[in-house]
Amino acid sequence: MTQHVQMGDLAIDQILFDFMEKEALPVAGLNSKTYWEMFERIVKAFTEKNKQLLQQRQTFQTAMTTWHKEQVFDLEKYKQFLYEIGYLLPEVADFCIETAPVDAEIATIAGPQLVVPVRNARYSLNAANARWGSLYDALYGFNVISEQDGATKTAQYNPIRGQKVIAFAKQFLDENFALKIGSHVDAIRYFIEENKLVVILENGQTTTLAIEAQCVGFNGEPSALTELVLKRHQLHVIIQFDASHFIGRTDKAQVKDIILESAVTTIQDLEDSVAAVDAEEKVEGYRNWLGLMQGTLTDQFEKNGEILKRTLNPDRSYKNLIGDTVYLHGRSVMLLRNVGHLMTNPAILVNGEEIFEGILDILITPVLSKIDILGQNALKNSRTGSMYIVKPKMHGPDEVKFAVELFEQAEQLIGLPNKSLKIGIMDEERRTSVNLKACIAEAKDRIIFINTGFMDRTGDEIHTFMAAGPMVRKADIKQQKWFSAYENRNVAIGLACGLQGKAQIGKGMWPKPDQLFEMYQTKIEHPQAGASCAWVPSPSGAVIHAIHYYQCNVAQRQTELLQQKMLSLDDLLTPPLAKEVSWSAEEVNQELENNCQGILGYVVRWVDLGMGCSKVPDIHHVGLMEDRATLRISSQHIANWLHHGIVTADQISETLKRMAQIVDQQNAHDPKYKAMSENLANNIAFQAASDLIFKGEIQPSGYTEPLLHAARLKLKGDIAR
Fold first, then answer.
1. Does 1 have pLDDT greater than 90?
2. Which pLDDT tens digit goes with each residue over 333-347?
3. Catalytic residue among 627, 628, 691, 712
4. Using an 8 Å Cβ cutoff, are 173 and 260 in contact?
5. Segment 79-93, tens digit of pLDDT
6. Is there a contact between 704 and 607 (Cβ–Cβ < 8 Å)?
7. Which tens digit of pLDDT belongs to each residue from 144-171?
8. Which alpha helices (H) appear in 272-356, and where do they start and end?
9. Phi and psi of 493, rounded to 5°?
10. Residue 151 exposure: Cα atoms within 13 Å on the Cβ side
11. Hey, where are the domains in the chain?
12. Which pLDDT tens digit goes with each residue over 575-617?
C-alpha cells in the first residue's frame, strides 16, 4: 500500500517526499513548507491549461479524421482546411533568437550527442565521461575494422587486428592533421622545440603540421611528450605516448592511443528511454541527476570477475606552447530530457487526482540542478549558470508557450536567476513541424536546441493520417516527400531564426549499436546537412561519429545552407500513403511479422523489467535500439493496415502468438526474463502489446505511454500483493 504525506492539498508519495526532504531540498537550500506551498499553487494554476491543450490535440485529430473520411485527399483543399481550423498558423515575422548565456558545447562546438536513461547510474556515468574516448578501443571492438585476414576480435589482444586499428587511426591523423611532409605513419618522434611541434620521420626528415595552429599543447616534457594535443573544428585530439605500453612499444613513435573529443553533449533522459511509472522509479532518475550535478554519483559493478567503480571524470589539463596551463572540460555537457504534457503520475496527487508528469518534472528537476546553476559544485556541468531541459512531444506553439511559462514559475519557486532554465524543443510532432518558426518564437530567449525525432514524428504522421489511406511499408517511409521536407526544413528554419552559433540543431539516433561500420559510412550526412549534433547510442558510437565532425566543418556548412532554398510546406504536408496496394501476401506477412516481433521484444522488457530502452533483436536477430518512439511507429503502422483491411484481426493475433515464441527464444539466456508464450491469456506484457495495436487508433496521438504505464503499474501491483 503506497504511503502518502499530506502537505496542504498535495498527497506526496512517501518515497518522493523523503528524497526531497532529506536529499534534494537541503542541497538546494530551500525551505520545505514554502516550497510545497508554492508547488501546490503552481500545479493548481497550470493543470486546467494542460488539460485544455490536450483537448485541443484531440479536437484537431477528430476534425482531420472526419475530413479524410469524407473526401479523397487533395493537397490544396487539405491545406486550406488546416488553416481554417487553426492547425496551420500564419507565418510569424522574421526574428533571431536571443538566448544567453549558453555554454560553448551548446552554442558553437559541433559533435555527437549521447542519449541515455538517467535511471541507470552506470550508463549515465559512462555517457557523461564519453566526452573523451579511445579511438583505438572503439575501432578494435566494433566492425569498422573487418575481421578478414586474421584480424578477428579475440579475448586476448590480437596484434593483426591491432595493426589494422593503428593504420586506420594514422590515416585519420593524415586526413585531419596532415604533416607538411610525409605521413604520421612514418613519424618516429614528436617533440616541442622553440614553442613549435617538430616531427621526425623514419627517413630522417624533419617536419611539422601543415596547419601549425592545429597543435595547441602537450603534457610531459617538451622533449619527452606523454600527450600531444591537437585541435580541429573546435574539437581536440590527444595523441598519447608510452614506450612501455604493449601498444606503444610496437609503434614507431611510441603512440599508445589516440583520444578523441567525442560526446560533446549528453541527454540524460527521463522520457522515452526510461520506464518510470511511479514515485519509486521517478526518484531513481531524480537521485542520479542530483548525483551528476553534485559530482558524487558512483556505480559499482562486476565485469569479467572484477569489481569496477564508475565516477565522474575530472577536467583535463595541458600546457600550451608557451607553457601556460589550459583546462578542458572532462565531461559532456549534460541536458536533461523531461517528459511531455500528456502523462500523469501517481507520485503526487492533488485532491486525489494524479498531477501531470511534465509539471512534476519541471518543479523538481531544477531543484536538483540548483547547485550547478549557482556554481556551488566542484565538477561543473554548465559554466554559464544554465540548466538545459529538453521538452519532448509538444504540439505547436501554444504548448511551447505553456512550457516556457512553467519554466518561469520554476525559477521563481526555486530561487533561480531569470532565464537560467533553457529549453530544447524536440521537433517530433506534426503540428510543431508545420509551425516550427512559431514554436521557436515562443521560446526565443530560452531556446538552445531543436532536434528532429524521426521515430516519434513518423508515429504522429501515421496517426494523423490514420483514416486517409494505408501507409507505405515501414522501410519505405523515409523515401517519401514529407520526410525529406521535414529534415530539410528543421535545419533551414533553425538557421533562419539565428540558431547558428547560439543553439544546437540536431538529428536523430543511429539505431544499430553493433553496426558501427555502417554508421561510419552513412552518418556523416547529418553534419553535412547542417546538424551541429546527432544522436548516438553508446560511447564507442560517439567516438566513431566524432570522426565526421573532424571531417566536416559544420559552421561553414551552415553558412552555405543559409543561401539554399528550403523545401516546401506542401512537401511536408504530403502524407506517406501507398499509391496502390499491390503487395503480395508474403510481403504483407513479412511486414506484420517484423512489426509484431519488434513490439513484443520491446514491450515485454518495458513492462516486466522496467527497461525503457533496450537493444532488441529484430526478426533477423540484428540488435536494434528500441524505445517508445520505435514502438509508436510499429503499433501505429499495424493499426493503420488493420483499419484499411490490409491485414485482419485474426492475422494479427496469430502473428503475435508466433512472434511471442520467437521473442521468448531470443531472451532465453536472460535469467530475469519470464516467458510470455507459457500463458499468453494472462501475460500482462503480451496483452499490452496486443492493446497497442488493437486500441492503437484511439490512443492519443498514437502514443504508447498510457497502455505501457497501466500495464507496468498492474504488474507491480500484482507483485506487491
1. no
2. 999 999 999 999 999
3. 627
4. no
5. 999 999 999 999 999
6. no
7. 999 999 999 988 999 999 999 999 999 9
8. 279-294
9. -70, -40
10. 18
11. 44-131+265-298+334-572, 133-261, 585-720
12. 999 998 999 999 999 999 999 999 999 999 999 999 998 888 8
Enumerate residues 6+ apart whose C-beta is below 8 A from 615: 513, 514, 623, 624, 625, 626
Q: 16: number of CA atoms within 13 Å, CB side? A: 30
Q: Which three cell numbers stand for residue 366?
A: 531544477
Q: Is 142 annotated as a binding residue?
A: no
40 annotated to a ligand binding site: no
Specify the fold of 44-131+265-298+334-572. Answer: TIM Barrel (3.20.20)
Separation of first and last alpha carbons in the chain: 9
Per the structure block, which three cell numbers stand in for 164? Answer: 589494422
Distance from chain centroid for Cα 620:
25
The matching CATH number, chosen from 3.90.800.10, 2.60.40.1120, 1.20.1220.12, 3.20.20.70, for 585-720 is 1.20.1220.12
pLDDT digits (tens, 9 = 90+) for 296-311: 999 998 888 889 899 9
Q: Is 537 annotated as a binding residue?
A: yes
Place of cell 555537457: 333
Mean local confidence (pLDDT), 102-120: 97
Q: Which of 119, 337, 489, 557 is catalytic?
A: 337
Task: Find out whether 538 is annotated in a ligand binding site.
Answer: no
Burial of 587 (0-12, 13-18, 19+ CB in 10 A): exposed
Prior bond of 575 cis (ω within 30°): no
> How far apart (Å, rounded) are the C-alpha atoms in residues 418 and 204?
61
Q: In angstroms, rounded to a whole number, what is the distance separating the alpha carbons of residues 10 and 37?
A: 9
CA 44, CA 54: separation in Å to the nearest integer? 16
Q: 236: which strand partners? A: 231
pLDDT in tens, 695-719: 999 999 999 999 999 999 999 998 8
pLDDT surpassing 90 at residue 642: yes
Question: Is 455 labelled a binding residue?
Answer: yes
Task: Provide the pairing of β-strand 421-427 with 447-452.
Answer: parallel
Q: What is the mean pLDDT of the chain?
A: 96
Report the CATH superfamily, name and number, of domain 133-261: Malate synthase G - maily-beta sub-domain (2.170.170.11)
Residue 627 is a catalytic residue: yes
**Stretch (H or E) spanning 482:** helix 481-496
Is 457 noted as a catalytic residue in this protein? Answer: no
Summarize pLDDT for 415-461 with one digit per residue, the tens. Answer: 999 999 999 999 999 999 999 999 999 999 999 999 999 999 999 99
